Automatic annotation (TrEMBL):
InterPro entries, per database record: DNA-bd_HTH_TetR-type_CS, Homeodomain-like_sf, HTH-type_TetR-like_transc_reg, HTH_TetR, Tet_transcr_reg_TetR-rel_C_sf
UniProt keyword Cytoplasm present: no
UniProt GO molecular function: DNA-binding transcription factor activity; transcription cis-regulatory region binding
Record protein name field: Transcriptional regulator, TetR family
Alphabetized UniProt keyword annotations: DNA-binding, Repressor, Transcription, Transcription regulation
HTH tetR-type domain segment(s): 10-70
This protein's record includes keyword Repressor: yes
Domain of life: Bacteria
Amino acid sequence: MARKTKEESLQTRENILDAAERVILLRGISYATMADIADAAHVSRGAVYGHFKNKADLSVAMCERALALAATPERTPGASILETLFEQGMYFLRLCTEPGTVQRVLQILYVQGDPNKDNEPLLEIRERWEHQCRQEITALIRSAMAEGELPADLDINLANLYLFSLFDGIHSTLFWTNRVRQEDRWQTAEILYRAGFVAFIKAPQLRNRQ
């Protein structure tokens, strides 16, 4: 019975986090209440407070759960560093665009992340996430340069920024507009990403200025 009770408690916690994603995405962190989240999860407010001490604690747990699901995939055996960089970009593009926990939480972090007191814990999480992503991309860029897959005089900061901009642009086109038919969007995304990579490798504007 104790094991079942623990499993039920864990499931209740997951249901509360699911509800928090929906409610905060709909209402914003400043206007969402613990009562709203309890109603959406079909539990009592006491049950919510039994798992989370306040809204900030709940929102942080919501974000940490989602970003834990967004771990960088392992490198495909035999893949070049540039191909790994491309595969990881496509992986995160799907993760951030397809409906689900990661997509909802990233939308909360990036679209609703206005600087105010309620958002401070989420802004800190967003900064840590950004820093981690930049570090991982920088490490791959440096490895590609060392292996001769990228020019030795590449400006690493500009190259990193270029890849983020490429990602953001394709994501915005897929997620925020109707420019691409639903059934064609991933084929189109891969074409655009490949084209962007050709520019990434060859563009003289991304070289260090002497």
